[in-house]
Amino acid sequence: MPDRTVSPSLFADASTPKTSGETGWVTAHCDGGARGNPGPSGYGAVLAGPNGEPLAELSEFLGIRTNNYAEYSGLLGVLAYALEHGHRRLRVVSDSELMVKQIQGKYRVNSPDLKPLWQEAKNRIAQLDGFEISHALRHKNKDADRLANLAMDRGMKRPQAPGQPAPPPLKATPYPTKSSTPPNPDAQRSPVSGTPASGTMLRGFTRDGVIHVLGGQSLPNGVFVKIIPE
86, 89, 180, 213: least buried by Cβ within 10 Å? Predict the structure, then answer.
């Protein structure tokens, strides 16, 4: 189960009604990353109230995921926090240009692994009274980046700073983790050659200019392939 840490010392007063955020905008800086792509990943986020007062720090280890998956997880994390605590207007700042422009509708979502996360984000955004998202360079998102790296450190069992014990794990915010069940590769092979049929979507990666297909499949000589970065 993913490890999600929320800094309780930065929470607003627990006695505050859940509707207290309805009249002002909450600002969230979020960031996600992976050490390797895919690799050990995590996200971090910092939320501040309408007057700049600190509300919360979020930090969650996600397991072996891609950078883009981690970026979307950060967005989903701050959306969940806003909805759970009655904050109806949310501004999000992220250094992921891809995610920001996909949420804004400027880029299409082609990745089957990101599409359910994008859809879940849109569903949560629709529950708010106001939402804005903007892109910022990484150096303007350093606190969220620090929390994302702390999450990855915890997941990789790196020691905490002196005097700062590892925070206890909390239940992660549920959201879709994968696209629909991938098709059976054997059902899409040519019965004659045993190679994938024309039009079949395969998954793989490139290394040193060579395409490596996952699942033990192979490509016949002379075929053309379309590579879409994830």
Answer: 180
pTM of the full structure: 0.62
What phi and psi values does residue 201 have, to the nearest 5 degrees? Answer: -85, 125
Query: Taking every pair of C-alpha atoms in the chain, what is the biggest distance, in angstroms?
Result: 69
- Exposure string (b/e) for 56-76, b if CB count within 10 Å is 16 or more? bbbbbbbbebbbbbbbbbbbb
Total residues found in the chain within this entry: 230
Which two tokens mark 207? 């290394």
pLDDT, tens digit (0-9, with 9 covering 90-100), for 103-112: 999 999 999 9
CATH 3.30.420.10 fits 3-155, yes or no: yes
Write out pLDDT tens, residues 82-92: 999 999 999 99
Q: How far apart are CA 203 and CA 27, in angstroms?
A: 37
- Measured from the Cβ of residue 228, the count of other Cβ atoms closer than 10 Å reads 8
Distance CA 219, CA 226 (A): 13
Segments making up each domain of the chain, as ranges = 3-155, 182-230
Mean local confidence (pLDDT), 168-182: 37
